[in-house]
Amino acid sequence: MPLLSHPLPPYSGSYPVGAIDLEVPCTPRTFSNARLRDGEVAVQLETWPAGPISLLGRGYARFARTDSFVVRSVCTAVLWLFAGRTTIPAEVDVPLYGTPAPENSPTTDDPNPGGVNGPGGNRFPVIIFSHGMASTRTNYSHFLGELASRGNVVVAIEHRDGSGPGSVVHRADGTAHTVIHFDSGSVHLVVPGVDALKRLQLAFREAEVEETVSILRTINKGRGEKVYQSNTHPSGEGRTLSIVGGGGWAGRLDMEKVVIAGHSFGATLALQTLRPGYPVAFKGAILLDLGKRSGPLNSHIRPGVPMIIAHSQSWTDGRSVQGPFHGSTSHFQAVEDLVRKVNREEKGAAWFVTVMGTTHASVTDALLIQPVFSCRWILGPATGDARDGVEKFARVSSEFLGWLGDGDKRAYETLSEDGRDWVVHVAPKQT
């Protein structure tokens, strides 16, 4: 355990939590002629999967607009002191709940306590999660683990679009390629500027989501052995996918009801995937702190798709000082107008709520690992207990998932009424 950090707490749900790291080669795609200053293609899709701490340190140095040896070293040292050996409280490469483990595979003492089925019968709901700018998928491990402990299969994508601090792409031929953060000043674009780069990165993320769904479908069809054999991640995980006939996973994922979710820039991406014509028709969406610097929000939503937009209190409180947002008086107004439009014109069921006592970082592991950062003098008056903040976001997401899964009237009423944990700005009419 790092010198200055706290361990992540256990999960509160009734299901045990496991984790598998997968990095699977896909057909390479280039999304534009954009190139870095050294001539390398800026964004190219090679594999679907966080990088070494030294790489993350270099990436965060770039976010600080410097890449000197001294600054990189300081960033790396700080990361090591505060989070260097923090572990996620989940079993590695264990079978899906209700499945016997293959011989010699690591497993829990009791991999299927209490039965063999997920909350939806024999199949488990699936959530695909997109991380925010300057983040990695592991920054959200506790929030995502909470959702998993409540009976969901959660897939967190490690985006390689240059928006994160850094990541290593492991190719099928054994070579590796480093993707590190870059900004608009580091890329030669046909139409230069931040907005053009954001559009390019969102398009790249959309493709990563498509590849993710494709891999999940392969696993669900009982071809987990193929995915396991294709895994280029150094961990070598995925053996539990290769049980004869895909036994643990075949037919166990409810691919007809996949939910897309994201935080900040990832929430903007998730909203993009709800447009008509996107190759994947998601069942619903969970959008946390929709991006304020991600460009205009997609307002062309596929008719009938439910969503919940949950902002932290600090994200909402900024509405009075932010100013105009792409034609709206503020970001808050743009989100409110979007949700009302979905409920009015698209025959959807959309909520817009503020989760009280939370900040933009509350959904991440940062405040759990370093509670000192929860101090109000650092993050402002909206800051509450770190663990309570994650729990609130997990609860509002779970209530939405409960309503989405079986039309739970109680969940609908809970989401639509102000309470201790959240304030409702817009709610749909119950039909």
TrEMBL record:
An example Gene Ontology biological process: lipid catabolic process
EC numbers on record: 3.1.1.47
Alphabetical keyword list: Hydrolase, Lipid degradation, Lipid metabolism
Organism superkingdom: Eukaryota
One family name in Pfam for this protein: PAF-AH_p_II
Similarity comment: Belongs to the serine esterase family.
Name of the protein: Putative phospholipase
Classification of source organism: Eukaryota, Fungi, Dikarya, Ascomycota, Pezizomycotina
GO MF: 1-alkyl-2-acetylglycerophosphocholine esterase activity
Catalytically driven reaction(s): a 1-O-alkyl-2-acetyl-sn-glycero-3-phosphocholine + H2O = a 1-O-alkyl-sn-glycero-3-phosphocholine + acetate + H(+)
Ranges for region Disordered: 97-118
